[in-house]
Amino acid sequence: MKRMLFIYNPRSGKGVVRDQLSYILEEFSRDDYEIVVHPTIEPKDATRITQEFGDAFDLIVCSGGDGTLDEVVTGMQTGRFTRPLGYIPAGSTNDYAQSLGIPKQMRKAARSIMNGTVYQCDLGRLDDSYFVYVAAFGAFVEVSYDTPQDMKNLLGHAAYVIRGMQSLNNLKAYHLRYESREMSGEGDFLLGMITNSDSVGGFKGITGRDVTLNDGVFEVVLFHSPALAVEYPAMINSVLNKTPNKNITYFKTSKLEIWFDEPVSWTRDGEFGGKRKHAVIENIPRAIPIIVPGNDDLKTAE
């Protein structure tokens, strides 16, 4: 009999996985799996469970937010093994699941794992840690990890919007220098995102055009600090409408190195990623064997 390790975060989103757990397990049981279930109790539990036990299973499935998925993938990397990975999104935004076309309805997501195919996604490395779809610094990044879980459970995605509005008065520019094979530069920047997703913070299309999740490169977006405050609306409009703006730099790269004048806070997949004066971000091609539904819209690199 095939064996499945199912890890879920009971607090993700509005705690809906608790209500759906029986339905999810029924879907898996129909495919003749022996299922071992592990709820997470504290941060990094999913990493520990995956690293210690995951190699003994044929399939690993997790349910939670993007941070839970990040922990499971990290557990496979630090455990030095890979397994097909199923994901049932249960967070407040679920950017990565949206990019992959994974259903929002949990029972449908479970069924798609049983009927889906493995898609080899790229993985990111930020110094000695990993990220599934985004590493970012600067304005608003603290919103992703500072927003209280109870607030996210109550308000969902709106909780991030509210916290983001509260941080508008604290916008700060950071002086930095960056280098990649494709582009290098120096200046004052409000926000930087290194992504492998077409959705970040619930906003689809913010990472640029022609996003492919297994092409070996990241989409990099750097927001310069404008000379005048009146330029902010034009920057926002450019992001929403995917039009050029002199204060926004887009490019693709497989490796990026950044130097700051002071320690700067980072986020990895919505969780706190530490403070750094120097960062090296690298793409690990096709390192995540994630199961996706049959989806003709999902781009695949040649």
UniProtKB/TrEMBL annotation:
Q: Which GO terms describe its biological process?
A: phospholipid biosynthetic process
What this protein is called in its record is Diacylglycerol kinase family lipid kinase
Report the cofactors: Mg(2+)
Q: Does the keyword Magnesium apply?
A: yes
GO molecular-function annotation terms? Answer: ATP binding; ATP-dependent diacylglycerol kinase activity; metal ion binding
Which family, according to the similarity comment?
Belongs to the diacylglycerol/lipid kinase family.
Q: Which UniProt keywords apply?
A: Kinase, Lipid biosynthesis, Lipid metabolism, Magnesium, Metal-binding, Phospholipid biosynthesis, Phospholipid metabolism, Transferase
Where is the DAGKc domain positioned along the sequence?
Answer: 1-130
Entry-linked InterPro entries = ATP-NAD_kinase_N, Diacylglycerol/lipid_kinase, Diacylglycerol_kinase_cat_dom, Lipid_Phosphate_FormReg, NAD/diacylglycerol_kinase_sf
What's a GO cellular component annotated to this UniProt protein?
A: plasma membrane
What the entry lists under PANTHER family is as follows: LIPID KINASE YEGS, SPHINGOSINE KINASE
